[in-house]
Amino acid sequence: MKREKLNVLILSILTVISVSCQGPKESETAEEKKPNIVLIYLDDLGYGDVSAYGAGTLQTPNMDMLANGGIRFTNGYASSATCSPSRYALLTGTYPWRNKNAKILPGTAPLLIDTAQVTLPKILKEQGYHTAVIGKWHMGLGAGDVDWNQEISPGPNQVGFDYSHILAATQDRVPTVYIENGRVVNLDPNDPIQVDYDQNFEGEPTAITNPEMLTMKWHHGHNNSIVNGVPRIGFMKGGESAKWSDVDMADHFLDKAKAYVGQRAESGQPFFLFYALQQPHVPRTPHPRFEGKSGMGPRGDVILEADWVIGEFIKTLEEQGLLENTLIVFSSDNGPVLNDGYYDDAVELLGDHTPAGPLRGGKYSLFEAGTRVPFITYWKGTIKPGVSDAMVTQIDLLSSIGALVGSEKSSADSQNLMETFLGKSQVGRDAFVLEATSRTALRQGDWLMIPPYPGPEVQTQVNIELGNSTAYQLYNLKEDISQQNNLATANPDKLQEMISLFESIRGLNSQQIQQLELK
Ligand code: NG6
Ligand code: CA
């Protein structure tokens, strides 16, 4: 009896040993092969700000390494000419104009994404990924009336991110603190934070009452609470120990991103990192290491800082042995702006640099520079370097990346263009409705149609042409990338065809669309 039991025991031990020595099962091997996905996303970086795009005079060697070692898209679009709508579209694969709240958000706005909505990080999570967002969020937090001293929810962790380390809105908006997994970092419970976008807190200095406290001057807006000498949008009180250091922000997010990659490398689980840099959005606060480096003032300096950060981050992937198993997508949330509300010499020291490259307009504009942005896919050893003129948009990343990792999930507006992103196809989207401050226009093939909008032609404070006109505008972008020749009168058939398509995608007629946008 005893001997029999011993035999059984030995047999089971041997079985365990032999099974565990067989190596990974087929499914595990496939699992291991799933590439990591990193989305490096800049804030207000223009088409001409990356030197590989051949337009400006600023040198961005690390961004160029991605561009020249991967696919550089010349017709890559953000979905909106401003931040919150653009990011919303990126993560949900949904046109921002379908969500009436998708506008530039104050720091107190509730979460823009419905927690039931499909999102890119959710899709990846379902496919076995660990998911993280590090950097700028600006898609709202909470359900309205957030208490910044408690757990802040819903937020990134409720729409698909396992880990989040973010700034809530923008660098120029309060609260000026980092939030990790729903908690303000380094918050002293004895010094609670209060935030208000309508009214100041009694006795708190503002840029109006205490201009002597400012180390950076405001040009328009940005005259509420002062943090680190920089006047912000919105009022904030308390939370002294939690306030970020502006000049250290790039290093701070880089440290977090490097630590995250290190942890993930150890775990072996594939990961998705949405690395959302804050540069070159205002206030431009380069670390002293980068001050004066560009000769173009703080805007140029923070782009060089971002470029350095990207180089360091890629080094980390390389050191961890992950670079050849990581798809990197590089882009920007909207086009460039020089003076966006502070006196920081961006206009005065620009020299020959052209942040928008050959494109007309800029941030806030329906003209190309508003939404056509640097767009690069890089995957060492897998993507063959090249340039693609195919039309691709950030909305398409949801379906495309989903398909790459074996998901069939999609959203109404997102198209699977993975073959194009990998450089195996030159075919992009046929049509795309782009958005700028609640106005929309249609790109189809080489053509762009802007319906009439009665608003101002130029936003004078930022000195950017918005794309408004009382007449229809029609441009052939292949022949006229700078949108100088309005062909609406010369091409009535093309114009009519585009108006019809525009109305059918938007589900409204042009008049209704204008009414909607005037509200
Ligand atoms: C504008 C701000 C601008 C910037 C922008 C958002 C003023 C006058 N201007 O309202 O400085 O913060 O919002 O930029 O307040 S975005 O890239 O996040 O969309
Ligand atoms: Ca932006």
Overview of this protein structure:
The structure is a single chain. With 519 residues, the chain is an alpha/beta fold. It folds into two domains: 36-193 and 238-425, Alkaline Phosphatase, subunit A (3-Layer(aba) Sandwich); 433-515, 2-Layer Sandwich (Arylsulfatase, C-terminal domain), CATH 3.30.1120. It has helices at residues 2-21, 26-33, 61-69, 83-92, 120-126, 249-267, 298-319, 368-371, 397-404, 418-421, 492-506, 510-518, and strands spanning 36-42, 71-77, 130-136, 163-167, 178-180, 183-184, 194-196, 226-227, 230-231, 235-237, 271-276, 326-332, 375-378, 386-393, 431-436, 439-444, 447-450, 458-459, 464-465, 473-476. The strands form five sheets. Strands 6-5-4-3-11-1-12-13-2-14 form a ten-stranded mixed β-sheet, sandwiched between helices. A four-stranded antiparallel β-sheet has the order 15-16-17-20, with helices on one face. A hairpin with a 2-residue loop joins strand 16 and strand 17 (447-450). The longest helix is centred in the middle third of the chain and has 22 residues, at 298-319. The chain starts with a helix and ends with a helix. Mean pLDDT is 94; it is low at 8-31. Bound molecules: 2-acetamido-2-deoxy-6-O-sulfo-beta-D-galactopyranose and calcium ion.
Q: How is the main sheet built?
A: 10 strands, mixed
Number of helices: 12
Q: List how many beta strands DSSP finds.
A: 20
CATH superfamily of the largest domain: Alkaline Phosphatase, subunit A
Helix-strand makeup class = alpha/beta
CATH fold-level label of the largest domain? Alkaline Phosphatase, subunit A
Note the quaternary state here: single chain
Small molecules in complex:
2-acetamido-2-deoxy-6-O-sulfo-beta-D-galactopyranose, calcium ion
Spatial gap, N to C terminus: 88 Å
